[in-house]
Amino acid sequence: MVKITFQSVSAQKPEKDQDADKITVPQAHGRLVPLMKPRKPFPTGLCCLAISLVIFTLGLVLPSIYIYRYYFMSQQIPEDSLFHCRVIYEDSVYAPLRGRQELEENVSIYLEENYEQISIPVPHFGGSDPADIVHDFQRGLTAYYDIALDKCYITELNTTAVMPPRSLWELLVNVKRGTYLPQTYIVQEEMVVTGRLRNMRQLGPFIHRLCFGKETYRLRRRNQRQRIERRETKKCHRIRHFENTFVVETIICDRF
């Protein structure tokens, strides 16, 4: 005979374990530790993007400040640093025009930037070309822009012939009180072209602004022997200008 029995099922549900929400991972030695949620990765890409934007912004702002300072602020010159000069001098070097001559020019003096700019209009008499000249004392350079030829010429600043901005300003302030300077004289300096210049940025912002987009050449001064031996058949042109107590005639020759 076989006896069949039934096991009673309790209606009560087993109590929920308080630790049921915890996820455990078995570890060595039978210890259970909670599983930590992984940390979010650091946004490296976003940080690199922000740094790139800062560098790009600085790359735009700094050149803009430089251009504004040297190309715009330098043009805003006080009226007491602008001069219109008319100089009477004795011409003893150019045969067709020997005697008393008059030179007219406009001078702008930039004391803070330490440079001078001279504008010479078309002369009333022949023998000289109209020109714009920049004397940059900070870089020790002079630039002649011959308007008739539409060419620029760069040479070392001749501090013997050119007064520094402060001294020239004081001289012209005294001149401004009258119409003319006392009669003065003329001296010559001869230059020869030595080659073409293509990198204009090395010349500084003031000369770069004057000569930008123009054929630009280097000049070298001739010594006394070269002046004596110079042939008159060489192609030369003259620029007469005033930046001292005397008039300077700069003779520029294309070659020896």
Automatic annotation (TrEMBL):
List the residue ranges of the region (Disordered). 1-20
The protein's topology relative to the membrane is: Single-pass type II membrane protein
**Pfam families found in the cross-reference section:** BRICHOS
Keyword tags: Cell membrane, Cleavage on pair of basic residues, Disulfide bond, Glycoprotein, Lysosome, Membrane, Phosphoprotein, Signal-anchor, Transmembrane, Transmembrane helix
Compositionally biased region (Polar residues):
1-11
The listed locations are: Cell membrane; Lysosome membrane; Membrane
Q: Which residues form the BRICHOS domain?
A: 125-219
User: What sections of the protein cross the membrane?
Assistant: 42-68
Q: What does this protein do?
A: Negative regulator of amyloid-beta peptide production. May inhibit the processing of APP by blocking its access to alpha- and beta-secretase. Binding to the beta-secretase-cleaved APP C-terminal fragment is negligible, suggesting that ITM2C is a poor gamma-secretase cleavage inhibitor. May play a role in TNF-induced cell death and neuronal differentiation.
Q: Fill in the subunit field for this protein.
A: Interacts with BACE1. Interacts with APP. Interacts with STMN2.
Family per record: Belongs to the ITM2 family.
Q: List the protein's name.
A: Integral membrane protein 2
